[in-house]
Every structure is written in structure tokens, then in C-alpha cells.
Amino acid sequence: MDHAADAHRTDLMTITRFVLNEQSKYPESRGDFTILLNHIVLGCKFVCSSVNKAGLAKLIGLAGEINIQGEEQKKLDVLSNEVFIKALVSSGRTCILVSEEDEDAIIVEPSKCGRYCVVFDPLDGSSNIDCGVSIGTIFGIYMVKDDHEPTLADVLQPGKQMVAAGYCMYGSSCTLVLSTGKGVNGFTLDPSLGEFILTHPDIRIPKKGKIYSVNEGNAKNWDGPTAKYVENCKFPKDGSPSKSLRYIGSMVADVHRTLLYGGTFMYPADKKSPSGKLRVLYEVFPMSFLMENAGGQAFTGKQRALDLVPTKIHDRSPIFLGSYDDIEEIKALYAAEGKKE
């Protein structure tokens, strides 16, 4: 028996311990954020458990309803949405919730109202459930100032106003990646303990990557700069090796790989979707927030992604995010295109 290994195993940095350590750096903190995060973590554990037994519990397949995006809802989508709404409301720390699955924002009743607004996609990549591809939950958190009652304007803010963002990926392992505005940390669920353990401290995206990630099935509808960048990835003119294409079609999985290995993840605007496909509040903003805090960049084709100001809770936007130097190359291509016009 390896007693040394067992002794080391008892000194684990759980996500709760990690957040409490961070909280202790702010004497004025009341612990509200820690409580809210614990409820998000509980929701992630519940959904992870449901995803793992989805086939056995007959949770895969269509639920027979269409969500407000016009997409058929899976049974797990419906369940995940309910789980997170209940977890967030019961925390007593939220005032407004925005979910991909609900047409309108949820205003929390005054008796359970707190000072945080949470925007979330309860089950991103759900079209991949039936074939076992990694899927996940994405979330972003805003804080309402004490000087006014919460309104929808509190969530229709630029992404740079978020106080925290993260995602939980349900795949070969269950991984939760979180940023509270100072670096990015990754935690992996230890099923034997039922705890998220710090496994990826201070994630930094490589300055330049060897991978690009985009749905090339849309290539005929792309604008000039996107087409040019992908051509440069395949046929570099500076003699460097070609980049590898990796595209899973589940944003959480594609962004997670980009964060760890570097490169670019792209979902550009095109003739078919001139405003882009991904939703600003609960997909573009949280992932851009994480990417910037890990040393990367996020760009819409026109501006820094986190400077966008949404006008509706389900607004969409093009997005290019990833390694700093790679996004600089995309920005230069868009700048050159702008000069031609």
C-alpha cells in the first residue's frame, strides 16, 4: 500500500476550498459569490450524473418540444434547464436568470432575490448527446449594484462587466473551468469523492497554435477574411507547416481544446447567418472572458468581443477566439478588407 500517495491525496485543492481561499483575500466579502458558485457546482454534478446514465434512463432522444431558438429540445436539455434554474434560485443569491432554453428572462421572486445575474446555456452541444460526444454547460455571472433594483438592463451589459464565467464539460471526465477575472483554473470531478479537484491551475493558452477549428461545411458562404485565414492555415506562404483542422461541433469541447492546446475557434458570420450563429450572452461572452483571462483574444470581426453591448437576451454574434498571435492575424485580415472598402 502506497501510504505516501494516500497522504498526498488527502491534501486536495477542491473547488470549494479554492473559492474560499480567494474569498479570504477580500475582507469585505460576505460569501455570497461562494454560495452561488456552490449551487452552480451542484447543478453541474447533477447534470453530469444524468448525462452518464442518459442511455439507461431513456433521457436521450427528443422531448417533443421546440425551444425559442427553433431547435428541437432533447430530454436532457429540458432536465438540465430545470436543474440549473432550481439550483440558482434556491441559492438565494440571484435576481435575474437568462437561459438559452427560455424565451424570457426569469425574474427571481423578492423573498429569494440576491445581487447576481446568471446567464447560462444548460446543455451546449446537445445535438451530440445521442452519439456520445462531449457536451457541456456554459455560464456567466454579472453583479447588480446595490444602488438600484435589478432590471433586464443589468444583464444587457458588455461581457467585460462580468464578474465570473466558466463551463463544465461532460466527456471522458467531468471538467469545470472557471475564471473570476484573475486567471483561469480547471477542476476535474473525482467520482469517488464527489468533489471537483484542481487539476489545471492557472491555464495559459499558447501564444500561437497549430490547430484551427471551424465548420468548413459553411465555406461557400464565408466572407473574404475568413476564407483567406483558412487558406493561410492550409497553405502557409511563409514556409511554416500547415495547421491541423479539429472541429467537434460542441462549443465547450472545441473551446476547451483551444484553451489547452492553442489555435483558433471560429464561428464567423456568413451569407446564411449574417449576424453569426452563437448567442452573445451565454456563449460568446463567457468563452471570450475565459480566453482573455488565459492570455488569448476574442474578436467579432469588427471589435473586441467583450466590448459588444447586447440589445436582446438572445442576440447572436460572429466570434473568433484563441491564441493571441493567431487572432492578431485574423484582425489584420479584417483591417485590410476594411481598407479596400
UniProtKB/TrEMBL annotation:
PROSITE patterns: FBPASE
GO biological process, one term: sucrose biosynthetic process
Top EC group: hydrolase
Cofactor(s) required, per the database record: Mg(2+)
Coiled coil: none
UniProt record similarity statement: Belongs to the FBPase class 1 family.
Reaction catalysis annotation: beta-D-fructose 1,6-bisphosphate + H2O = beta-D-fructose 6-phosphate + phosphate
Transmembrane segments: none
Localisation: Cytoplasm
Protein name: Fructose-1,6-bisphosphatase, cytosolic
Keyword Transmembrane: no
E.C. code: 3.1.3.11
Gene name tied to this protein: FBP
NCBIfam families according to UniProt: PRK09293.1-1
GO-annotated molecular function: fructose 1,6-bisphosphate 1-phosphatase activity; metal ion binding
Native species: Gossypium hirsutum
Domain Fructose-1-6-bisphosphatase class 1 C-terminal: from-to ranges: 205-334
CDD domains, A to Z: FBPase
GO CC annotations, alphabetized: cytosol
Keyword terms: Carbohydrate metabolism, Cytoplasm, Hydrolase, Magnesium, Metal-binding
InterPro entries referenced in this protein's UniProt entry, alphabetically: FBPase_C_dom, FBPase_class-1, FBPase_N, FBPtase, Fructose_bisphosphatase_AS
Domain Fructose-1-6-bisphosphatase class I N-terminal: 13-201
Pfam family, one: FBPase_C
PANTHER family attached to this UniProt entry: FRUCTOSE-1,6-BISPHOSPHATASE, CYTOSOLIC, FRUCTOSE-1,6-BISPHOSPHATASE-RELATED
